[in-house]
Structures are given as C-alpha cells and as structure tokens.
Amino acid sequence: LYLRNSEVSKAYLAFTKAISISDSTEVLLRVCRLYKRLGYTTEIVTLAQELGRDIPSSSGMRLIIARCLFEGKLYEEAKDLLWQIIKTSPSAEAYYMLGRVALGQGNMDEAELAIHRAILFEPSNMRYRRELVHLLKRLGKLKSAERELEVAIQYLENPSPGLFRERAYLRQKLKDYEG
Questions:
Q1: Where are the beta strands (DSSP E) in the chain?
Q2: How far apart are CA 86 and CA 95, in angstroms?
Q3: What is the pLDDT of residues 52-102, one digit of tens each?
Q4: What distance in Å separates the CA atoms of residue 100 and residue 140, rounded to the nearest whole number?
C-alpha cells in the first residue's frame, strides 16, 4: 500500500523488514516485481543497493536482485552486480543471468560465452543448453547448435521427442541427412 501511495521510503522499510524476517529469495523477487509493475523501475537500483547494505545478502539474494534489475531492463546495473557475484562465488546461475543480460543488450557473442560458462558449471542443466541452442541458431551457427542438442540428448535419461525433432530440423538445414 505504501508503494501504491507513492510512499517509497515507508515501502522500503516495510519490505526490508519482511525480507529480513522471511530470509526468502521469493519475497525479494515479489518485491522487485511489484516495484517494476508499479513503475518504480529506477527505484529498484536504490532498493538493491540499500538491501545490500541493510540485509546480509547471500549470493542467492544478490542473484535475485540482479534478476530484478534485468527484468527492469537495468542491464548495466545487473551486469555490474553479476560480475561482483562471479568474482566472489561464481555459479552457473550467475553466468546464465549474465548471458541473458548480454542478450538484452544485443551482445550475442558475450551472451554465448556466458551461457557456455554456465553449462561448464552445470552440464546437465537443460534450460541453459536450450538457451544456448536458440542463441546459436540465431547466430547462424547451426552445426554448433546441432552438437549442443546431441550432447543434451546424451545427458538425458529420457530425452523428449522435441529434442530429436529440433536436431532433425538442424540436420535438414545443414543437409546432413545421415547425422
């Protein structure tokens, strides 16, 4: 209610208390999305900075803040925070988010590199692999996309028919009918 009534400082105090009590990244994500939905996009940066000071933030909390910044299209701020996270505790999710930020900025090569690094941390994460396959297809790197799909199919115990269909589509584009 404070935020809806443009009482940003009172809203911040209420949110800080709620986040410190719950210690839940889900609460923080909801707060950031509420700020965004109500048009307080630039205040997300201030909120993120103040929360970083007031609440001992784990890398999980900081990742959520980076995600909020990303969703608010505050790419440079998200990128800076993600590099801070990566320097102290690198993770697959941090690199994946860095890749999404790079995509948001239109930097496809940087996105490809970041998502590759995420996969190095979590090779069995299919979300990262699918994102990489879609990016490689956009870049016209069909052979690399086909190889990524092949690896994904090998990693999964029970791969979905969609993976095989997508691989067949790529092979057809490459005129590699035998595989």
A1: none
A2: 8
A3: 555 555 667 788 888 878 887 889 989 998 999 999 889 999 999 999 999
A4: 19
